């Protein structure tokens, strides 16, 4: 109800803004400020509406779980992703530290939810003994596992969660609650940093869940998490397992630069240029107001980041027809990457605002350093904005100084990305995932939590609100030669934060084989009585593969790890085409998983019950 009321007020503001016909740059800027101020209020509420247990848009979500979007079909985003949740909480924690004390209960709920979530066995693996389950990207909104086929693991999640929780721990320490930081929150962070230290050098799905390789965004955040972990563990007097990997991770981060731009996904050949909004989102998520611009952490003000920004943004000038005619040096609608075809390949709200945030960050860093070095690498970026620019050092000066003029030009460039966002935000302020590349009409998931969170962080930076330094200056320089290394993690349930006291979860592989003649377009699943096999919820059943299917031997198969010693009821279920109802076997089958340490078992079954027919659609 509150949300709807605030929307009505907001629409009125926009309407009067549109009629006001601003006369000067000052009016234009004031109108943009009004938009940002209104939209950031709507956006903060929009994010909160998607968090359990009380979020108005997400009934059924448990306390502390951030739902990606209320959208249940086309696309189905009614799940909780570790990445989106951590980025949203980082925003809420910063808002809380900036003074919005109402947000503390969300943070406390999140801490509890994540402590439990770390221990949940899932298709990426178990929590004990090696932390593998923490690479799982998404879960049901009640914190149970998601069994569907997915791009897993995604190794940015633990790093991002650690970063969010470290920010809150630092606040606790400054406010006389070091003991809570040490006993309740550190055990969660410690698991996450152990995960990063052990697995940073293994491939991962990227933040768009499409590409398995090494992802710039992931590596950048992994480095930040470990650097902050070193400092926090010192402050708390605890040991950080895995943090010793920070210099190697930083070393690896340097290899994403190809001489002209950041190749966002390496160790993969996906036929793309590598120009990807990944690199802008990475830079803003490791922004440090105290950083030096030549820091190898690749801050927004780094020459390579700026060069990459120009090349990347310019690809979108060509890609989307809504950007046609917008001159160089003026903001455009920004998407994931030029070759994108998901939902037709469109600009995203959260990446367009990220472009603005990136530029506000860079300006803040130059102003804080009182200087700017333009070099051959960054020259082209500045040329579009300030044609008189030269390769040299600019020191800060009065308001007519070249330094001040360049700052104004980059700030105006940032504002122009916000103005593009404003143009394509519907009058009620709701932020979907994307907007149409030809018409600008919102599309894909409605009320995307990440879109809202990204708008709020952009408006914080625009307003000159910066999270305190994360210590990038203290990051140990990368070694001259990079090595492929790993530190074995130490994993233990964070019981003081509410995690169940799981001991080593012993699982045994069970292969389900069923002979079932199917028509092209029909799919098979295993469904059963435990969470591991979907707890009789067909949306969470285990998808089977037909890779060895022949007419003579119509084999469907899937292997899953089930808890040793447990008895499971299960059956097979057919998914029909053309929205026909699912067909279940009539009988319930039973299996008993062998004892811990046993070899895996295979169920050799034949379909019983009704078979399907292809629909006409
Ligand atoms: C592992 O690290 C080495 C050294 O930095 C690097 O060459 C290699 O590409 C990395 N592999 C992955 C998958 O991270
Ligand atoms: C970098 O840009 C230069 C000049 O356009 C070009 O000659 C070179 O091939 C580019 N290198 C890469 C790796 O794209
Ligand atoms: C807001 O506007 C969008 C786009 O016009 C629409 O899809 C959505 O349902 C509206 N939301 C509310 C809460 O009215
Ligand atoms: C958790 O279980 C272990 C092993 O059973 C036990 O040693 C430990 O005290 C338990 N911790 C808590 C907090 O209950
Ligand atoms: C048998 O299967 C159905 C789902 O088809 C399930 O609802 C029911 O609980 C199962 N019964 C037993 C005893 O497992």
From TrEMBL:
Substrate binds at residue 150. The active site is at 206 (proton acceptor), 209 (proton donor). GO terms for biological process: polysaccharide catabolic process. SMART domains: CBM_2. Residues 1-20 form the signal peptide. Belongs to the glycosyl hydrolase 15 family. Keywords: Carbohydrate metabolism, Glycoprotein, Glycosidase, Hydrolase, Polysaccharide degradation, Signal. This is Glucoamylase. It comes from the Eukaryota. It is an enzyme of class 3 (hydrolase). Its EC number is 3.2.1.3. Residues 502-609 form the CBM20 domain. One of its GO terms (molecular function) is glucan 1,4-alpha-glucosidase activity. It catalyses: Hydrolysis of terminal (1->4)-linked alpha-D-glucose residues successively from non-reducing ends of the chains with release of beta-D-glucose. One of its GO terms (cellular component) is fungal-type vacuole. The gene is GAMP. Coiled coil: none annotated. It comes from Lachnellula suecica.
